[in-house]
Write a structure and sequence with these properties.
Keywords: Signal. InterPro entries: Cupredoxin (IPR008972), Ser-rich/MCO-related (IPR052953). This is Phytocyanin domain-containing protein. With 341 residues, the chain is an alpha+beta fold. The chain folds into 2 domains: 114 residues, Immunoglobulin-like; 126 residues, Sandwich (Immunoglobulin-like), CATH 2.60.40.420. Helices cover 21% and strands 25% of the residues. The strands form 6 sheets. Strands 11, 12, 13, 14, 16 and 20 form a 6-stranded mixed beta sheet that branches. The longest helix has 24 residues. It is globular and about 55 Å long. About 19% of the residues have low confidence.
Length: 341
Amino acid sequence: MHFRFALLSSFLLGITHLSFSAEIDVVVGGPGVLKFNPSFVNAVVGDVIKFTMKQKNHTVTQSSFESPCLKVATGFDTGFVPVADTVTSQFPVVRLNVGSLDPIWVYCKQANHCQQGMVFAVNPGDKFAAFQAAATGGASTPSSSVAVSATASTTSTPSVSTVSTTASTSTTATATPTGIDHRVIVGGTGILAYSPSNISAQVGDTITFEFHQKNHTVTASSFDTPCRALSSTTTNGELGFDSGFIPVSDSDTVFPTFTIRVNDTTPIWAYCRQANHCGSGMVFSANAIEDGPKNFSAFLDLAKQQNGTSTPTDTSDALVASTFSYLHLWISAALFTILLI
């Protein structure tokens, strides 16, 4: 009996070390708001920080404790994400995976937003107040923020521009003041595809994804891992874009849109992270090099080959629920076995 109790105690103690990653919400900006809300969070390895970008035009840019308002050379940077005052839902979202318990220092590089206290931190300990004080004390200048913007334009991750609602269903590219807007239809009744699924775009062009039935996303990925979010596989701090899930009913005739701006000619890879949609071929590319090995056809084949199985953190809530259910059954069976000893 004593042995059984000791074994059961050891098993339960082991269970206490099991943990699951959490998604932590942070709101960036808003009408008349120059702040990250909350201003800092505490997170563990595996957690995901979800930044919801609101009005007006902000960034999520990595800095350092010593220089709050200057981007670190190898740090992440969303680029500017303008959101109109008329937008009330379907805000752009970017995600950051927490890879260590070290502090992460962040600021908005728009004009003098940082100098007005628009900074953020992950795991700052007792240093956040000092970090914010250094920012508002003039640790950087507006001109230095502009210089960082020029560097950010070389990133291979396009920045999200706007999210809006429109009744247009045209797939014809249209001219804008800065370039061409390419319209891509996402999904539709019985359709698991982006149409067109492969385009060429120039620097300054925009790509507007128009969401049709049922419930899809457009999420940045990479050629090597088509069905995983870029933010979870990158090694150089890229956050990537993610529209989030956008449900559209069969009766809807006005369709929400999500727009990204092309900052360079580096290929853009994207997928739908709903259930097994990516494994079914729901992927997209812009500026894929068609005469090279990393062309759209190869990207599509790789997505189907992986069949979405490499995306446990990007699939639907049903997968998460089944994981917990499986764990519950496993624990119950193990406890039952121990009690029979």
